[in-house]
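Troubleshooting log. The previous structure file for this entry was overwritten by mistake, so regenerating from the original sequence record. Sequence copied from the archived sheet and checked twice against the printout by T.R.
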Amino acid sequence: MNRAARNQDVDRDGGGDRDPDWEDRVTAAWAAFDDHAGEDAAGFRAVIDALAAEVPDDSPLGLFERACAWDSTGHSDRAVPLYQEALALGLSGYKGRRAKIQLASSLRNIGRADQGVELLTPELDSPSDELDDAVRACLALCLSGLGRDREGLALVLGALAPHLPRYQRSMANYARALADPRD
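Regenerated output below.
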């Protein structure tokens, strides 16, 4: 995403009143994640916490970034309430959709896949964007976590079909057939 699009997304998400390069510094921190998160997860979370502290307390952006940091360092249980609070404070747009996907994944990780399904199912009818396949993939994992593998496979095949160089129609038809409980 280019800087102008990222800044537009930030304004929708309630973060337009902070340092204009904040988003760039957050992006840079995440770009360095693989360099030290495995061996120094607490240090990485401290970097994100410092950045999150720069936004107003009522901004959902800091909560979202903190949730991502906890989630990415293996603590879904700590991420869930932060994602929920960010969404409750109005996180919307691209980051709001990301938060829903990541929250659903974290809910599945802590044994609450049913809540992940409830959260992501309405996203199937949301305006289309580059996160559509991630919604379907995460929803498929949540469905599988509930023993609904056939529905999950239908979602994954449906998401994959448009990307195939051939067999798009066949895979889309198979996906529909799997989703039809009469089959």
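The radius of gyration is 18 Å. Archived copy saved in two places this time.
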